[in-house]
Fold these 3 entries.
Entry 1:
Amino acid sequence: MGTIGKNTTATLFLCLLLFPIVFSTPNDRLVRIGLKKRKIDRNNRMAAHLESKEGKASEAFLRKYRLHGNLGESEDIDIVALKNYMDAQYFGEIGIGTPTQNFTVIFDTGSSNLWVPSSKCYFSIACYFHPKYKSSCSRTYKANGKPADIQYGTGAISGFFSEDHVTVGDLVVKHQEFIEATKESSLTFLIAKFDGILGLGFKEISVGNAVPVWYNMVNQGLVNEPVFSFWLNRNPEDDVGGEVVFGGMDPKHYKGEHTYVPVKQKGYWQFDMGDVLIGDQTTGLCASGCSAIVDSGTSLLTGPTAVIAQVNHAIGATGVVSQECKTVVSEYGEMIIDLLLSKDQPLKVCSQIGLCSFDGTRDVSMGIASVVNENAGKASGNVHDAMCSVCEMAVIWVQSQLKQNQTQERILDYVNELCDRLPSPMGESVVDCNSLSAMPSVAFTIGGKILELTPEQYILKVGDGELAQCISGFGALDVPPPRGPLWILGDVFMGKFHTVFDYGNMQIGFAEAT
């Protein structure tokens, strides 16, 4: 017994030396977590492409979550599975255990679990490049053992649940359930600058029905108000990455009043928004409403391919040419115009010309893989789906031009140009860095107000000097109804607009960041 006691004491003393507490105490009862920021780099983007090619990640998660399946199946969609953390730029530090073991995590409003690498992760290379949680070093650890598995867009983690105290700023969340990751099957996690994820979404999407860290902060009375807020610093010259504030918001981070919208559905921080404008022109698809999710774990703004192609066209972005798209325009373009001019219902146009095999009850959104990544060897049914989707997008594009009283020739030229702007399966499009001044603003209608992004705010610069490359901050992601059409407003959007997540009143607020 004496030997065991001495060994335990020595182990805890060693852990105390290895994992010092580094958090400071705020003086205004707001809990501030400073965020670190890094630039998007070519190595990470190359890794993302390798992930896509080797694992065919985008096709896999579209199939698994039925993003281009039947309407009756679309309730099974899990947006967490679409997440790609490769370009994540903002990280903060937390501690787990007593004494504290420190980890760098993404504070992610688009998922709900907390996970970090486990000391029992023996066979994943990624675990050897990040600190690992050692339960034997914590005197507040409690075993759980329930298995856990989370599938992301570019990889997966698996492991088991454990329970321990989690330190966030100067708050200590007691008895927090979290995942010890024993397998990280992705190049993403190997070269990532973060160790794990701390989800700030709702319990409804929590794997294993684990109570999220944020819920326990509120339930244990650790915050003054059931509110947290994000300020992301988009100044590339500033070393300060931003701040997450738990318990309220810091007036220094924004100006004016917040525009609030109600949370539509608990799970994600999801709300209803209106039209998307390029300059002062409508893009059509969201004029009657779209859903949107605010997601701090996503770098880009993603939305329906039909709209992203219009944005890419307006900003001169170069994407992947879709042969199916040009074929539809060549063979059916004039017929689509004639049917729309004859006041036929737009949703039934594609079925009337034989490209869709149903009566127009389907939405224009479907799996992007079937639009921009169909191969000749695939089954004819899938090819037919691709042609149907392209037709539905073409109807949207033609409608927008007819509203502007354009000629038939100009409409067909415009739609052909949009075909050239369809984004790649990775959603990436490149623009000329010297053309930013000529690009239009892109605006979102939220809560009856127009929230506008300038080119300097929606274009991401990769690299420096002559080797610099400018990437469109817009990516394509198609989600069918009832959940879609859907936009995911990531860091590009949150960098411009200070964002408040009001859990008590089930609402989200936006104000111009300072």
Entry 2:
Amino acid sequence: MDSFVSEPRPASYETLSNNVLKRERRARERQVREEEKKKVTTNKIPENQRQQVANDDTMDPTQFLSNRIKSLALLKESGVNPYPHKFDISMSITEFIDKYRSLHVGEHVENTEISLAGRILNKRSSSSKLYFYDLHGNGAKIQVMADARHSDMDENEFCKYHSGVKRGDIVGICGFPGKSQRGELSIFPRSLVVLTPCLHMLPRHAITSNSDEAQSKKKTRNHSWTPGITRNPETYILRDQETRYRQRYLDLMLNSEVQKIFRTRAKIISYSRDFLDNLGFIEVETPAMTMTVGGAAARPFITHHNELDMKLYMRISPELYLKKLVVGGLDRVYEIGKVFRNEGMNLTHLPEFTMFEFYMAYADYNDLMDIIEKLLSGMVKELTGSHKIKYHGNGFDSEPVEIDFTPPFRRIDLIEELESRANLSIPKDLSSETANKFLLEACEKFDVKCPAPHTTTRLLDKLVGHFLEETCINPTFIINHPEIMSPLAKWHRSKPGLTERFELFVNKRELCNAYTELNDPQVQRQRFAEQLKDRQLGDDEAMVLDESFCSCLEYGLPPTAGLGMGIDRLAMLLTDSPNVKEVILFPAMKPQD
């Protein structure tokens, strides 16, 4: 056996052998790298297509539109309809997320066929065989991971088709669910078809540097808005207010937070409707065009009925019609609808707005204070998870205020609190010239501006706004208004000259107006006559006599209480919107030149 034992090799021979092995290993590694390089080169997007993708973001919008129109024309000439009539979906994007969110990282369910549809708002790729899209629909988003290996198309068709898909296009996808290696829930298409092409170039985030881009992504990732908390408009893609309000479809498409705002508004209306339905109320509809103006102190819009050849008014309130229904035996009624008041526009009021009004037989204003406390506190708790909300009442540049809807709400007596805060002794007979002179001097003393005409009602209203409304951050009932300010409210049962009326103020703005209803027809006619005096002095917002309503009262209105609440202002509070146009889908705007 010893003859078969090799002699020890010289050290130089062993070193030489190791060097040879190292060279061979390096050669193999170079070969592998070259092969990978060839694969990458083969998979790269062709130069002309890569240039086209890059140009999409830098191209002039007019040229982009022209190019898309031309490409659609070519499709039509070839017999392809670029606007399919129908696409069957098996589930919504929201349902897809709920069903498959529990998949493991890298897990694919290839034996499941899913069809989804939505709008593409982001597209990215570095390879002709792999495209990533962000698919949006119904307020939700998922990733589309289009891989040529899973497609029904061959590689050339795949590359050509996907290079023509643009941001904004609405697409239909058939594929299987899974999660990427990074853990992002995705759909992997076997087929993807453009259902509706977007002809215009969509805006992107305005980024000026890499640091700005990182900061923007961080803000977007960390801020997910829900009702009751402050909003972050800095994360919006489309920020120009004029464009957002005039082209609300773009606002909804690009700014996901805006969809949440209007979903919240819808929930406010649904909650209010359900609340009253559960109390035995029925919802009704009353005329939007009327022969007389009534139910509120406001200037109306005037229109003309061609068939009847008569002037009609757009309603400023549904109040008188609703009370007629109570006379007819519908003891609990409500209406949610548009009213129109031809008056000023500001951050909290537009001439066309949504009013929520209800009337309840055999109740008074004390009952309504309890009801509206329960409705609002319950609504805020339901939608936000708390009784406290944050609100940028003075704009997004200022610090938000905290508003607490925890019941019971604060209550202050109008005359008593005004006299206390202003150190005044207001004459008891507010219909007298003495009272009018006293209030005019008080306005001058405290530099409270009141445009003409200087009726007692207007002077008193301005003083209340100056001294009382400014203190109402949390929900506050201002109660027991004078008769002169409340022509439709019933006189107070224990305080002469006052009425059983309240206004609910939140963040210094009126949200609700309510009272025990006046049901004595003789007193109602007298109140209308007193309003006529103010109208003759130049107050074109004073109420006019509605004889049909007075005649209705003669048949008997039971003891009743009614309340009106502005839906728009409530939506502003719960969506942190300092501008009322933020909560109206298509607000009135001056025409563009």
Entry 3:
Amino acid sequence: MMLVRPPRFLSPSPAPGPREPRLRRPVDASRIFSSPRPPGRRPRPRPRAASPSTDLRRLTARIVELTRRRQLAQIMEEVEAARRRVRAGGVPNTIVMNAVLEAFVRCGDVDHALLLFKEMRGPRGCGVDGVSYGILLKGLGIARRIDEAFEILESIEKDSSIGSPRLSPHLICGFLNALIEAGDMRRANALVARFRKVLYEGHSVLLYNLLMKGYIKSNFPLGALTVKDEILRQGLKPDRLTYNTIISACVKSSEIDKAIQFLEDMKEEAKRESNPELLPDAVTYTTLLKGLGNSRDLYSVLKIVVEMKSSLLSIDRTAYTAMIDALLACGSIDGALCIFGDIIKQAGSNKDLRPKPHLYLSIMRAFATRGDVDMVMRLNKRMWPDSVGSISPAAKEEACELLMEAAINNNQIDLARGLLRRIVNEKKCFSWTSRVGLVAIKVESLSGFTNSLLRPHVFPQIILNDPVEKYMVPFQESQPLPADIILRKVMMRFLKDRAVPLVDDWGGCVGIVHRDDCTKLDAPLLSMSRGPPLCVPTSTTVEHVIDLLLREKSEMVIVVKSGNMYEGSYASSSRPLGIFSLAILWSFTGDYSSDIHDAGSLVTALEQDTGTCNCG
């Protein structure tokens, strides 16, 4: 079928007549020589300047981000740059300056916060509002400057404050929360009693939740139960936070039965009022699992785990970690592995469920106690690609220590010795009471004294029960220096000796100068000493002198006659007999090397000697 376009009917044109001359537009000479615009290209629009309100919003967001990083210097630089950009010498508005005030409070610099607050309410400032007063009150509470905070509250109550702020629960709750976080329930209760009428406006349970948290912080958790009774007397209804706080208080006071009862009350009230906001959440179950794990109640732990997995509750990584920790505390390693496998399976589709390194370490501790070297090695290997977040150096060290513990518990002495050798080479020092120290003692005891990896220093010429007088150096041979001499004149002496005794004009020892304390070239030596010298009588045993040097972290002691000791102090009028130092002790070791003068290495060696002797 063919469509035919209908004919166009044109109106008859008028008869041609004389044309009127067309008025031409005068031609601009600059357009004659300018190149014509290419066809199809439009002029580029000029960028519009951002409005001042948009700039201030961006600045506020930037200040909040820098506050999280605690970069106060960068915040002040950007605020000063914003002040220079504002025309006619203006200042940023109150919202921006409140963000700066919050940054000072978050970083603990309350003095600068007070100065900024005075500048804001000054004649050339941007002004203050209720938010400004709330932030300042919170900062004063954190800094424990309670009197200044109460003065500000009284001025607000009398309407004598600049900005005309109004007393409100939100204004006071920041200060109250700071007192509660510090555990100062006496002042917190005084604040509630003083402004009870204001705090009870609106009949909210927020105040009571804060008070319950305060009782938990002040090591009186059962006091939170009395606050719940007060809530019921006031005709208020507890919310989910109220129940979570009460359950936390019961767990902290080891009242697990009461915590389970409050959990049941929570579910019954939610069902009775058809209020899903009262149902237990992940925080409720996580808190309860912690208490059940501490009480080693495996049956209740399994019951809570089944209830969590069968409900519509969204289980996050923290809740899964609490399940595993509770099962491990109850000794159920198989149950913990089942939950751990569930986490790994779901982490493939949900990256937020990937476990953190400390969860791997918790499971590795359980297998290291069993002596399961294979499982500890597998978990250590999978911790690197499968965990989320950074692995701290302490976590890396603990993983290696757990592997050594598993090897020693499985009687694999050679593997444990190799791991201990690597730990000794990498770590500067470790405590004998730590995990690696206890395992090292086991390895050393099984290896024998001749195969020791810690290379203990032997004192073949010293008997620890001998008096120190037998091994001391006479005082004059130590070449003491005058106490008032300038360091610049004798600085070469400290390249040879790490500690030098000082004498006064009468020949009495008045101090000991250590090489590490020589920091002022033009100062007298006495000003750089560590106070009166350490003195011991001639009858003191060498063992006690070594303990004194290690405990006081000193290089030298002064030996005096027994009659010159008055309640442990040294009389400068009496003349010292000799000195005993770490350098002298080091010269009596069996593997003495003259090029070793480091006191830090010597102290570590002596601690190792003491640990070896205590190990038997």
